Amino acid sequence: MTDNHRPERSGPSGRVCPSVLWALADQVGEGEAAAFMDRFIGLWPQRCHRLHRAVNQHDAEAGLDAALSLSTAASMVGASSLGALASRLHEGISSASTPGAWRDVVAMLDELDQLGNETISDIDRLRRSLMSADEKGHG
């Protein structure tokens, strides 16, 4: 796919960096990149639920695993804001040794929900743009 068929940005939000997705498409192909985005979108509810459950149960091991998984996957799709929030959650969980510290981590879950859902919408728009541009490139 040529760069002139690719949208430059996801919109004014800046939640997703399209150049990361386009680089992924260049490496693995548009179809596989779109499939990766589909998997990221499809796994979002499960990832979010795992973090909520772990944090609300003060399960540091599960929370660290869930936060690291989300941070890594978010980085791979160019969702740097979501990845940074997941990293902050990871840091908060790793240092949460008192009920007050856990309350601070719990307070981040609302931000996670909002940012995550908005990011998923942005990724879905980019996925559709990628598939549309791919069709134009082959048409």
Features:
about 140 residues; mainly alpha; Four Helix Bundle (Hemerythrin (Met), subunit A); 5 helices; about 80% helix
Description:
- With 139 residues, the chain is an all-alpha fold.
- It has one domain (15-132): Four Helix Bundle (Hemerythrin (Met), subunit A) (Up-down Bundle).
- It has 5 helices and no strands.
- It has helices at residues 18-28, 30-56, 60-76, 80-94, 99-138.
- Helix 3 (60-76) packs antiparallel against helix 4 (80-94) and helix 4 (80-94) runs antiparallel to helix 5 (99-138).
- The longest helix is centred in the last third of the chain and has 40 residues, at 99-138.
- It is elongated, with a radius of gyration of 17 Å.
Supply the CATH superfamily name: HPT domain
Give the CA-based shape.
elongated
Q: Which structural class best describes the helix and strand composition? A: mainly alpha
How many β-strand runs?
0
Amino- and carboxy-terminal Cα gap: 12 Å
The name of the CATH topology is Four Helix Bundle (Hemerythrin (Met), subunit A)
Oligomeric description of these chains: single chain
Beta-strand residue fraction:
under 5%
CATH architecture: Up-down Bundle
Q: Summarize the main sheet.
A: none
Query: How many domains comprise the coordinates?
Result: 1
Q: Helicity range of the residues? A: over 70%
Mean pLDDT: 88
H/E series: HHHHH
Q: Give me the number of helical elements.
A: 5
Low-confidence residue ranges: none
CATH class: Mainly Alpha
Evaluate the radius of gyration.
17 Å
